[in-house]
Amino acid sequence: MLTQERRDLMVAYINEKNAVTVADLMKEFDASAATVRRDLSVLHDERRILKVFGGATSISSLDVNTKEPSVIAKASLNVEEKDKISKYAASLINDDDFVYIDSGTTTLEMIKYIENTRAKYITNGIVHAKKLLEKGLDTMIIGGKCKPTTEAIIGPDCVEGIRRYHFTKAFMGTNGISVDAGFTTPDVDEARVKREAVGHSYISYILADHSKFGQISSVTFAEISSCCIITDKEVNKNYSSKTIIKVVS
C-alpha cells in the first residue's frame, strides 16, 4: 500500500471511529508504531485529524469545511469585494516580477486589471492562462491533472513543475483563514500545489474577502505568518498581530 493511500484510509478510519489508539491503527493497517506515529504527525499538520497522546481523534465536520464549491458558485459571491481586492493586487506587479497566479475566482478577477506587460506570469489555472494570453502577456501554465471543480491543474507533476521555479510574487486563493489552522483548502492535492507555490515565492499574497476569516477547511497549505493578506474589511487584532494585512476600500 502506498503511503498516501494508507494515510487517506487512516483518515477515513479515524473519522468512522471518532477516536482510535496507535495500537488500533497498527492492527488495522499492519504497520509499525513508528510508521503510525509518523503518519499521524503528517495528518495532524495537514489538519485532517487531531493527534492526541496515544492516538488520534477526528475533527468535527461541524467545524471544518470539507467540500469545494464550484467555480460558478464562488464567482457569484462577494463580487464587489473581490473586485477591489483584485484591482489592488494587480497594482503590486512590477516590470521585473516573475509572478505565480493561483487558480481561484479572485485571482481570475485580478487578471483583468493587470497592466504590466514586462513581467512574466505562470499559473495552474486553466481559465487564468487563457485570460493572460488574451492580454498578450508572457504566460506559462504548469502541467498536471485537471480538476473540474476548480478548473485547476493539480497532482504530483504540477508540484514537481513548481519546484523548478522561484517566483518574486505569488497571488493565492484560499477557502479559509484561521489564526490556528492558517490558510486552508478542502482538497489535499490542491493544498500541495498551493504549499509548493508559497514555498517557492519571495513574497506571497492571499487574496480573500472578509467571509474567509474564521473559516477552516480540511487541509492547511500555509501558516498565517507566511503570507500577506489583501482583504476588503478590517479583521480583529488576532490576525493583524500575526501577519501583514492590507485592507482595500
N-to-C order of helices and strands: HEHHEEHHEHEHEEEHEEEHEEEHE
Main beta sheet, described? 7 strands, parallel
Number of helices: 10
- The assigned structural class equals alpha/beta
What would CATH call the architecture of the largest domain? 3-Layer(aba) Sandwich
CATH class of the largest domain: Alpha Beta
Distance from N terminus to C terminus (CA atoms, Å) equals: 52 Å
Mean pLDDT: 89
**How do the strands of the widest beta sheet line up side by side?**
6-5-4-9-12-14-15
According to CATH, what is the topology of the largest domain? Answer: Rossmann fold
Poorly predicted runs of 5 or more residues: none
Q: How large is the radius of gyration? A: 19 Å
Helix content: 25-40%
Cα shape: globular
Number of domains: 2
Beta-strand content: 15-25%
**Counted beta strands:** 15
What's this entry about, in short?
Helices cover 37% and strands 23% of the residues. It has 249 residues and is an alpha/beta fold. A seven-stranded parallel beta sheet has the order 6-5-4-9-12-14-15, with helices on both faces.
Describe it.
This protein has 249 residues and is α/β, with parallel strands linked by helices. It has 2 domains: 3-57, Orthogonal Bundle (Arc Repressor Mutant, subunit A); 71-247, 3-Layer(aba) Sandwich (Rossmann fold), CATH 3.40.50.1360. Helix content is 37%, strand content 23%. The chain is built from 10 helices and 15 strands. The strands form 4 sheets. A 7-stranded parallel sheet has the order 6-5-4-9-12-14-15, with helices on both faces. A 3-stranded antiparallel sheet has the order 1-3-2. A 3-stranded antiparallel sheet has the order 10-11-13. The N and C termini lie far apart (52 Å). The mean pLDDT is 89.
